[in-house]
Amino acid sequence: MVTLTSVNNLQASLATAQRRVEQGQNQVQRDSEQLAQSRQLLAREQESLSQTQRSSQQAQADAPAAVKAPQLDQAIKVAVPQQAAPAAPKSTPQLNGYGQTLGRLIDVTA
To answer: What pLDDT, on a 0 to 100 scale, did the predictor assign at position 105?
Structure first.
């Protein structure tokens, strides 16, 4: 025999089940919208990446050829001509003579 309590329990269970179904449908709807937004963002980012790669390739193609690095070890081996340095003067340098004269003058006046 069906009692009023069992009918009320069935109605409550049915209402709870309906709420859960609605919540699940709402969650599915939100997830679907988020997925669509993520796909749009991914498409924009892929296009941006593609443009960046094209620009990079174009820049590399337009770049001048790299300058060959100098070989410093070879530059050091270049011989210096023997007559490049002038011979040292045999007389006393003029500047030293002025310095000695100035030194005597200071010594006398001090």
So the answer is: 73
DSSP codes joined into one string, 29-90: HHHHHHHHHHHHHHHHHHHHHHHHHHHHHHHHHHSPPPPPPP-HHHHHTSPPPGGGSPPPPS
Tens digits of residue pLDDT in 26-79: 999 999 999 999 999 999 999 999 999 999 999 888 877 777 777 776 666 656
The reported pTM is 0.46
| Helix or strand run (H / E) with residue 110 | none
Which two three-digit tokens encode residue 13?
Answer: 């269970």
Give, in order, the Cα–Cα distances in Å from 2 to each of 5, 6, 16, 21, 56.
8, 7, 21, 27, 78
